[in-house]
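hey so u asked for the seq, here:
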Amino acid sequence: MARFPMTKKITKLLFLCLALHSTPAHALIGDVDKSFGLDGNVKAFTFTSKNHEHPIFNADNAYDAQGLLHLRLIAAGKPITYLSYEIHGLTHMAVIDDTDLSTIFATNTPTQHYLFFQNSWDLVAEDKISATQSLERANIKLRLEAADIIIGKQAITFGKTYFWNPLDVFSPFGAIQFDRDYKAAIDGLRIDIPLGNFSGLNIVTTTDEFDEAYGLLRYFGNMADWDLALQTGLIHNGAHLGAGASGEIGSVGLRLEGAYLWPDKSSVLSEHLSAVLGLGYVINEKTQVQFEQLYNGGATNNLLTNMALFSSGGLLQASKHVSGLSMSHQPSALIQSSFTLIWSWKEFSALVYPSIVISLSDEIDLLTGAMVSVGQKAGKGGLSDLGSEFGNYPHSIYMELKAYF
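ran it, structure tokens below
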């Protein structure tokens, strides 16, 4: 039975909450560029999906609906010239019909690894309603003459590609994640050592609740107008060695990233290479197109195994050869539209998702879009007969409203 009336109630409730925050953007208290400041944002999401005849990922219901509300408070400041800090508290509220659709769109992706301690606490945990409070970031940064040192819960991003990032080993964004304002953080120590105007070293150390120790050493530089990177270290699942380059050949932007993993004894992964080739072209000042090709060497011939590894973060995707194409167009200063297509070559399947972002004011943005899955669906055998990687995703529409204060 369809549940769209529930979706309308969710939408009205969440958008009313956002309307209460549509005041001009400024710090609530103080100034984040001085010793103390407090500001934040609130986001409301609604999702509705139409599931397939054999919805193995969505229970036995024809439709799903969900509403989410994220309230983020940010305390930050610079008490002295060489010291700064930031603390993010996130309240996450959800009204779920049957299936948590946010896991499909990866609207909130806390890492499963690289955490010293539990950073999330349940406030409400009922059948269809939940609320959690989490400490999203909490770190101190020291700016010294020889290096910048950051210790605590922080977001760490490496890599230049968009859909898939073999070099971004710490809580990377998913290929279809549409909200990339805040990346999930890890607990650790980061040291950035400059070697020149465009070169330096990054050192990262972290653990899994002190059970395992991890470390990464990264060099970055520039040669002949090309940005280069080389990194190695011990990460979750094994030993890692990767390299990347980005630059331009004529009017075409080129991105290359690759990483090789030697898995540890406890990992179910095999020794493999992951590599991405990315191309970008600016058609005009309002329109650009991006393309990426992924070689996912860790994928096996068993789709079910690959899906499990992908869900746990062990693989960048479940298929071995996957492509992504995105075209964005800005018809006006207040509107940004895009059309994205991701497809798997073996047993062809694809996700198609158009979206549009409208700036309602300096402090409020509205994003809406859809996702359509193409490809063979799961057969009557269920998990033993998945059909294709993307064919089992539900057809979905979504909306997000952001307000900053």
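The longest strand covers residues 63-80. Residues 1-25 have pLDDT under 50 and may be disordered.
lmk if thats what u needed
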